[in-house]
Task: inverse folding
């Protein structure tokens, strides 16, 4: 795989050769994953969050959100329904809600893994490395911890005083523990530059991630960034296509945020280097309140419908839903 130089990346990000970029990303995905797309079902089990990220509708200060916490039995039930509908990975996601004790998270992991042969991904935010290590021993397979930006100053500003280096340290600890680890950024945050996106791309690629996610910024009306300009969806497609060129074997999702700009956003993503779709399987009564950005979870469908809609999207493009758990192929294939 030829290494891309900085100038070349900038040219691509500026739209210098979209056709060439997208077809190279698509060929590389095809070479490494064939027609298989991985479907990961997300259970957004709590929208309670103690953080104040300026871009996110779930921030603690947003009193307009109707908050919910699912109990252990309901979380396991949603996961099991998704597994029965065909999902081979369950992603457990919440805000930074530390009311779930390590034991309760353990109960959820064991409940799901005891009933189905699925991978479990944790997307729980800044819990301690010791807690994550415990959950790894309980059978959790993967973690998702977004950096959102790889610039420490911007990180501090958009996440209201949080420390980038602490987040990075946690991410590295997760890798050391043995998890497959995913991370990513938001494309087009306020005051973002193309130069910064090149830095993000190179930084994320250097981390040796099993999964890389990037979606366009969508201003949420009840956040400090309500009047900021939205991210550019084309820049987001270019970013993920370049991520594919630099990380041939990593899993790269076509994020739901793409659909908020273009009803065929995720389809386009799959044709431009992405190989993962992550439908929400949060119960209908709760999903509308997991409103990270406008348009998120806009469709009200039950667990089985949500999985089958994702399958239809995949099949309509002549891809197939992978029957495997879609474990990382990166480690077996590093050049
Ligand atoms: N626009 C786009 N993506 C967002 N996220 C949070 N807020 C926004 C927004 N306003 C993304 C972040 C977070 C994930 C759950 O959603 O990357 O990690
Ligand atoms: Fe909380 Fe995550 Fe939203 Fe930040 S991005 S406010 S940590 S849910």
Result:
């Amino acid at each position: 795989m030829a290494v891309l130089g900085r100038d070349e990346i900038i040219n691509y990000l500026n739209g210098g050769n979209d056709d060439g970029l997208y077809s190279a990303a698509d060929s590389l995905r095809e070479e490494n994953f064939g027609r298989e797309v991985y479907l990961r079902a997300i259970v957004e089990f709590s929208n309670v969050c103690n953080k104040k990220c300026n871009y996110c509708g779930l921030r603690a200060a947003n009193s307009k959100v109707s908050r919910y916490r699912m109990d252990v039995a309901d979380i396991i039930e949603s996961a099991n329904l998704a597994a029965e509908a065909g999902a081979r990975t369950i992603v457990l996601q919440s805000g930074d809600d530390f009311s779930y004790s390590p034991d309760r998270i353990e109960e959820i992991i064991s409940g799901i893994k005891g009933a189905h042969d699925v991978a479990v991904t944790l997307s729980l935010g800044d819990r301690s490395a010791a807690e994550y290590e415990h959950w790894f021993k309980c059978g959790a397979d993967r973690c998702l911890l977004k950096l959102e930006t790889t610039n420490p100053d911007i990180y501090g500003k958009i996440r209201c005083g949080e420390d980038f280096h602490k987040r990075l340290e946690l991410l590295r600890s997760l890798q050391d523990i043995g998890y497959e680890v995913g991370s990513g950024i938001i494309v087009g945050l306020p005051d973002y530059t193309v130069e910064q996106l090149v830095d993000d791309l190179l930084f994320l690629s250097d981390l040796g991630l099993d999964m890389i996610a990037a979606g366009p910024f969508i201003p949420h009306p009840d956040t400090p960034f309500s009047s900021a300009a939205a991210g550019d969806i084309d820049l987001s497609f270019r970013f993920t296509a370049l991520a594919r060129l630099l990380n041939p074997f990593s899993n790269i999702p076509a994020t739901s945020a793409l659909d908020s700009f273009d009803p065929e956003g995720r389809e386009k993503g799959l044709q431009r280097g992405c190989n993962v779709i992550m439908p929400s399987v949060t119960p209908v009564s709760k999903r509308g309140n997991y409103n990270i950005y406008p348009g998120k979870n806009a469709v009200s469908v039950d667990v089985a419908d949500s999985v089958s809609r994702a399958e239809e999207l995949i099949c309509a493009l002549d891809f197939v839903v992978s029957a495997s758990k879609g474990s990382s192929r990166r480690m077996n294939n590093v050049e």
